[in-house]
Design a protein that fits this description.
heterodimer, B: 266 residues, alpha+beta, four-stranded mixed sheet, four-stranded antiparallel sheet, elongated
Chain lengths: 118, 266
């Protein structure tokens, strides 16, 4: 009868300490993250940089490859999300136009089967 | 009896600890979904740097470029950008990336800022207020660049070609200076060097401490080189290191200095 409470007590104590250690004292550190994990504002700025570069380079495939580093979704989705964020965060009209230009051109391009990640 | 209690408690503790670690490290680890650019993997940081440069060339907004570099939390010195430009060029990345990096390196070398390398807690978005709008014109908006850039269509003309004997130079160099019609150095101009066994490309502006329009190439002794600019008229041929004599009478390899300039607009 007294075996179970002792075992249970140790189990709960160990569990609490294990969770404390794993979540707070020494959580897994992500030091080598990918652009896909960027916070929304950084991600929107990342997309804006891609759009700014595209405005000059006019290389749509290169822009698509760059956008692919943000995740497996269609590249146009990242640009639309950045425009949405830009409207909320009061991006300048120039920035919104730059993003919009990329969105328009991506829409007009036939979807390719695969995009090679950089 | 006491020993058994201690054993049971300890066994439970170890089991619980193991379960806690398995849960917190494997089953439900802390997820970093809202990371900053500073946590990016090194290759993604290089992509980010390259994008900062391309965006800078597009917008001409140096303050924004500096804010973005600061977010990376690394030293983005002109030298580091120059190295990155060379390595990306060697890796077969688009030439436009190397050109952009060279232009950013040049302008950062001209105007250093204390902001570089210090993380900023604010996102680098332009806080300039614009009214939210649902109708956005699809027309591109290219803003003026802060760095000199070649006048479209105007070829570079060879202004002077001079053999140099400079004992301070440790190697035989082909030094190139490229200027616009006003005499300002132009970064990001591609220079092609060809010799019997191969060829190489490099860009002006990768050594901003020597000027935005400066580039050099190390010659091998007894090899004959031809040099041509992207946007240049005709190649400069027959470049080879000539022997120079130091004041102490010792021979050393000589260099060349080529100055190109865009002609003034009529």
């Amino acid at each position: 009868m007294r075996t179970t409470p002792r075992l249970l007590f140790g189990l709960i104590l160990g569990l609490i300490i294990g969770l404390l250690y794993g979540w707070i004292i020494r959580p897994i550190e992500y030091v080598d993250t990918a652009p896909a994990s960027l916070r929304e504002d950084h991600r929107a700025d990342y997309v804006l940089m891609i759009a700014e570069a595209y405005a000059v380079e006019q290389e749509l495939e290169l822009a698509r490859v760059r956008l692919a580093s943000l995740g497996p979704q269609p590249p146009i989705n990242f640009v639309i999300a950045a425009i949405d964020y830009g409207v909320i965060a009061n991006f300048s009209q120039n920035d919104l136009q730059t993003l919009n230009l990329l969105a328009v051109d991506l829409r007009s391009m036939p979807a390719s089967a695969e995009i090679d990640l950089p | 009896m006491t020993r058994a209690r201690i054993f049971l408690t300890l066994a439970g503790f170890i089991l619980g600890l193991a379960a806690g670690l398995v849960y917190s490290w494997i089953l439900s680890p802390v997820e970093y979904t809202d990371t900053a650019p500073a946590s990016l993997r090194q290759d993604f940081k290089e992509d980010y740097l390259s994008l900062v440069a391309s965006a800078y060339v597009a917008s001409g907004d140096l303050n924004r470029a500096r804010s973005r570099l600061a977010l990376l939390g690394i030293s983005a010195s002109p030298e580091a950008l120059s190295r990155l430009a060379q390595s990306r060029l060697a890796a077969g990345r688009p030439e436009s990336e190397a050109r952009s990096l060279a232009q950013l390196a040049a302008v950062l070398g001209e105007r250093p800022s204390a902001l570089i390398g210090t993380a900023s807690p604010t996102p680098p978005v332009n806080p300039a207020a614009t009214s939210p709008t649902a109708t956005i014109s699809p027309s591109p908006t290219i803003r003026p660049s802060a760095t000199p850039s070649p006048t479209p269509g105007a070829p570079f003309a060879l202004l002077s070609q001079e053999a140099i004997c400079d004992s301070d130079l440790s190697e035989a160099l082909i030094q190139v200076l490229i200027r616009d019609s006003a005499g300002e150095g132009i970064p990001g101009v591609q220079v092609l060097v060809v010799w019997n066994e191969g060829q190489d490309r490099f860009y002006t502006g990768l050594k901003p401490e020597l000027g935005a329009g400066y580039a050099d190439f190390t010659m091998e002794v007894e090899t004959i080189y031809s040099l041509q600019l992207s946007g240049g008229e005709s190649p400069v041929t027959g470049l080879t290191s000539q022997e120079c004599i130091s004041p102490s009478g010792e021979p050393y390899p000589g260099s060349w200095l080529l100055i190109f300039q865009q002609p003034s607009a009529p």
